[in-house]
Structure formats: C-alpha cells, structure tokens
Specification:
alpha/beta; elongated; six-stranded parallel sheet; about 45% helix; about 230 residues; 6 strands
C-alpha cells in the first residue's frame, strides 16, 4: 500500500505544475504531528476558523474537533482554505465525545495538555517539549475547558497576562501557543518531522485536492498498473 500511495502520488503530480509540486515537498518537510490541537465545543464560526488557519500556518497537521453541543461550522472567509491542507478528526458520535478524543490521543502516545488561565504550571516558553508528543486542548469561548479535560489532563499550560482582562480569545490563545511551541520545537533536537509514509500520504491527498476529477486520473493509473 505504501508503494502504491507513493506511485499514485507521483502519477497524479504529473498533472500539476512543477512549482506546486515543489511547494508541497517544501511544506511537507516542515509539517509536524509532534504537536497537535484539540478544540472542544467551539460555537462561534470565526473562532474555530481562526484556530484552523493558525494551525495550518504554523505547520501543525492535525486538528481534533470535539462536538458535544455545538456543530463544526467554519467561516470560509476566515479559514481561507486552511482546512484543505489539514487532517481534521471529528468526535461527535458518543455520549462524551471529549473523553473519546482524549482516550484516542492517549493511545497514540500524546500528553493531554489543558490550556487555562487558572492553573500555574507551564507557559509556552517553559513547557517541556522533551517529554514527548503533546496535544493542546482549548475549550469553549465562555467556559473554557471542560471538567473532563481538567480531570484527564497530564499537564496545564497558561499564557502569562498582565492586564485586567481574565483571558485571551481562544483563537488568540491558540495562535500564541502554537507560534511559541512550534518555534521552539524546530530549534530543538527532537525528531518532530513527519515520516516518509506520512509525507507520501499527504502529498497524494493534497494533489487530489488540487485536481479536477482526480478519480478519473486514478482510474487511468490503475488500468496502466494492471489493477483493474
């Protein structure tokens, strides 16, 4: 399957420009899954859209979207197509989708990091990146992270503030945390990049997203490869 994915991606890339193809490779070299983001019950479209846009801009490939009460409803004028290049994971099918998300991420080796202005543990500048992969949880606009996240969290992260206002807007918080942590991560000795299999899978996905009717081209590829 791995060879098939790479071969199909190479075939389809023959139908895009060399400039676009090189752009894909350049960005893939800077993508990471060492850090990821989970957003819990965000109900304002501009906020979830801004988080997706920040994640994509800072090279964070995955965003986990939890919907317990509110539906995922991005604003296209704000997200600016960022979701096209991200891997979005939706949690909407259980009674406690937050817990389902946490369990899934823990099974994949992620530390659960709750972002909150009320716990003094680490800041984006002092957070220990050496301890392993981490997922940053951001909660609702008014209530913040849920009690489930607080209970299940391995660590807490807070952004120092020096004014009267209690907290930043969620999209601002996400942008600050992602900028600080990804900047530090890229200067570290950790292996934060995608592996070759992940790169091939995303290269294929992005190429598909760029083409009109990639299904017809894939059918042509399978015929040439003797797979149909």
């Amino acid at each position: 399957m791995e060879n098939y994915t790479a071969a199909l991606g190479e075939f389809l890339s023959g139908f895009i420009s060399e400039t676009r193809k090189q752009k894909f490779h350049d960005i893939l070299a800077l993508r990471t899954r060492y850090l990821t983001v989970a957003v819990e019950d965000i109900y304002q479209p501009h906020n979830i859209s801004a988080v997706l846009r920040s994640a994509e801009c800072f090279g964070v490939q995955d965003v986990h979207i939890i919907g317990n009460r509110n539906k995922y409803n991005p604003n296209p004028d704000i997200v600016m197509g960022a979701s096209k290049w991200l891997t979005l994971h939706h949690y909407t099918k259980t009674e406690d989708n937050t817990l389902s998300c946490i369990r899934s991420l823990k099974e994949k080796g992620y530390r659960i990091v709750a972002t909150t202005p009320h716990e003094e543990q680490a800041s984006p500048e002092t957070f220990d990146l050496e301890k392993g992969k981490a997922v940053l949880f951001f909660g609702t606009e008014l209530e913040g992270i849920s009690e489930t996240v607080k209970r299940e969290a391995d660590e807490f992260l807070t952004i120092p503030m020096y004014g009267f206002t209690e907290s930043f807007n969620i999209s601002v918080s996400a942008a600050i945390c992602l900028y600080a942590l990804t900047s530090r991560l890229r200067k570290s000795d950790k292996h934060w990049q995608l592996d070759e299999t992940e790169k091939a899978e995303l290269f294929l996905e992005w190429t598909r997203n760029t083409l009109n009717r990639p299904d017809l081209l894939e059918e042509e590829f399978r015929k040439k490869a003797g797979l149909v």
